[in-house]
């Protein structure tokens, strides 16, 4: 983008940066902030007034109406849960709490509860859903960290399109959505070497999302990427990068690559790179970027 204006704000606990080919009106900025605030009021498990907290504290369960705009997010979780055999599951929220990533950010695991946790709710069987309506029969802690931020990026993207913005980059703390002519070249940040990249990739009318076990870590082996089948943090993969047509899908698949083989995700259209715990790198045949590492595994 040769000329652009910038709008920077904070929402859902992180920083956002919008680069647009024409200035955003104050009304548009207000609308974007309001959209992000409403999204947080629905999906944040750290807010006492959120819909997710109501689900988590409903002693006998209940019937909960989510915004129609978020049905696509719920649908994606249905698909990811099936494709990964339950490894991607938004009901890992309770496991995250027990590990210390709770509403007070205690960052102290309840080791007794973790060891004693045997019964684990599964997204595909523990609740019932019809469109935007979710029905439960007991408290359930939902965490949409795997794809929620990407979904919000897409919602903000649509709001820009609706007011006639033709060329832009929406950056939700590393979750990127580009629209416009020309390529927007992005560096793939190394998960452990600050300021280093393992490669670059050109974006054009597409999205890029990255995930790493080092970005939200609070102790030895404690981080936010869990395997929904075990409730435990993953260890074999340390970082992933996904390019897809929309940010929500890229975000969800970036998490799925930690717990599944890429072949299991063949129903989705995307390209990808991931780094294993020993530092080796895997990437898809259709990855259009350039990698700088010398230690690599053949393309998949």
UniProtKB/TrEMBL annotation:
Its EC number is 2.7.1.180. Keywords: FAD, Flavoprotein, Lipoprotein, Magnesium, Metal-binding, Transferase. It catalyses: L-threonyl-[protein] + FAD = FMN-L-threonyl-[protein] + AMP + H(+). The keyword Transferase applies. Pfam families: ApbE. It is an enzyme of class 2 (transferase). The lineage of its organism: Bacteria, Bacillati, Actinomycetota, Actinomycetes, Mycobacteriales. This is FAD:protein FMN transferase. GO terms for molecular function: metal ion binding; transferase activity. Signal peptide: none annotated.
């Amino acid at each position: 983008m040769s000329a652009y204006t910038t709008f920077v704000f904070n929402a859902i606990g992180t920083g956002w940066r919008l680069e647009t080919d024409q200035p955003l009106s104050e009304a548009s900025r207000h609308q974007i902030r309001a959209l992000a605030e409403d999204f947080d009021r629905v999906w944040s498990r750290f807010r006492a007034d959120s819909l997710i907290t109501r689900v988590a504290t409903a002693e006998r369960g209940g019937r909960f109406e989510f915004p129609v705009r978020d049905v696509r997010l719920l649908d994606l979780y249905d698909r990811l849960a099936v494709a990964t055999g339950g490894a991607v599951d938004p009901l890992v929220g309770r496991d995250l709490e027990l590990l210390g990533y709770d509403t007070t950010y205690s960052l102290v695991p309840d080791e007794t509860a973790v060891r004693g946790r045997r019964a684990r709710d599964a997204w595909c069987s523990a609740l019932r859903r019809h469109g935007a309506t979710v029905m439960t029969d007991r408290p359930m802690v939902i965490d949409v960290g795997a794809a929620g931020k990407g979904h919000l990026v897409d919602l903000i993207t649509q709001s820009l399109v609706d007011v006639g913005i033709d060329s832009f980059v929406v950056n939700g703390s590393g979750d990127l959505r580009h629209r416009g002519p020309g390529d927007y070249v992005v560096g793939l940040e190394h998960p452990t070497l600050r300021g280093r990249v393992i490669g670059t990739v050109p974006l054009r009318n597409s999205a890029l999302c990255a995930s790493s076990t080092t970005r939200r870590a609070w102790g030895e082996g404690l981080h936010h990427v869990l395997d929904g089948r075990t409730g435990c943090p993953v260890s074999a993969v340390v970082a992933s990068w996904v390019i897809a047509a929309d940010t929500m899908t890229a975000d969800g698949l970036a998490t799925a690559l930690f717990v599944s083989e890429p072949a299991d995700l063949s129903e989705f259209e995307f390209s990808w790179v991931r780094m294993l715990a020993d530092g080796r790198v895997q990437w898809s045949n259709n990855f259009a970027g350039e990698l700088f590492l010398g230690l690599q595994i053949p393309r998949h």
